[in-house]
Amino acid sequence: MGPLELRIAVRFLFAKKRAMLMSLAGIAVGVAFFILTQAQTSGFEQFHIRTILGTSGAIHVQDRFQDTLRTMEAGGSEGAPFRIAHRETRHYVEGVAEPRELREAVLEFSNVSGVSEVVTGQGTLRTPVRRNTVWIYGIRLDDHLTVSDLAGQVVFGDLADFRQNQQGILIGAVLARRLGLRAGDLVDVATASQTGKFRVAAVYETGVREIDQSRIYLHLPEARSLLERPFGASFLQVGVWRPEQAARDAARMEAVLGHFAYGWEERERAWLEVFRALRISSGVTVLSIIFLAGLGIFNTLAMMVIERTREIAILRATGFGRREIARMFFWQGAVVLVGGVASGWVLGALLTFGVSRIPIRIRGIFSTDSFVVHWALSHYLWAALFAAVVVAAAAWLPARRAARLEPGEIIRNAAV
Question: Can you tell me the mean pLDDT for 186-204?
Answer without folding.
Answer: 93
